[in-house]
Amino acid sequence: MSVSQPTPAAVPPAARLRPMMPADLEVISGLEPELFGAEAWSPAMLAAELDRTIGPSADRIYLVAELPAAEGVHQGGWDGAPAESVTGGVGPIVGYAGLWYGDGRGDADLLTIATVPAARRRGVATALLTALVRAAVDAGCRAVLLEARASNAPAQRLYATHGFAPIGRRRRYYRAPVEDAVVMRRRLVSG
């Protein structure tokens, strides 16, 4: 199954989306604990997920958002500093996300979406989410599901802005700390 690549029009100024590659895993493995704490995915889990994006049995897509090599992010925001200020010299990744679309006959699942703190509220998560919803449409999915921490109101607002509506809760879904998840769904096609 083929899913479309992200289009430049959906990306905020000074950032671009591209497929995640094995060379990105070191940077992303370093960002995971900062962004997700004890819920961070291990390097092995990230590698296994990325392996499932290639070949005839591919059933998911992972994207990264990056700044051009000449730009970087500091606490105050985009400031033209070298990219290694965020990524330890490996690359200027400011966000990443993944979506499972399966065989395209059911609902897709947003697996992860993350933006480095200094790049938040700059359209990075919107660009990633938009590209992944487009991938779900291209795959033929009926809807996209996701979970958000019950306490994460900013994420729930972002998803609602993009057509997701709450459909339920998963009690004690998150383990560190223990917290319910709000399940949200965006319908893609009428049925």
Topology:
Blueprint: E1 16-19, H1 25-36, H2 43-51, E2 60-66, E3 73-74, E4 77-78, H3 84-87, E5 93-100, E6 107-115, H4 124-139, E7 143-149, H5 153-161, E8 165-175, E9 178-187
Parallel strand pairs: 6-7
Antiparallel strand pairs: 1-2, 2-5, 3-4, 5-6, 7-9, 8-9
Structure description:
- The longest helix has 16 residues, at 124-139.
- The chain is globular.
- It has helices at 25-36, 43-51, 84-87, 124-139, 153-161; strands at residues 16-19, 60-66, 73-74, 77-78, 93-100, 107-115, 143-149, 165-175, 178-187.
- The chain is 26% helix and 31% strand.
- The protein is built from 5 helices and 9 strands; from the N terminus they run βααβββαββαβαββ.
- With 191 residues, the chain is an alpha+beta fold.
Gyration radius, in Å: 16 Å
Strands of the widest sheet, in order across it, are 1-2-5-6-7-9-8
Shape: globular
**N-end to C-end Cα span:** 22 Å
Report the average pLDDT across residues.
Answer: 85
| Helix amount | 25-40%
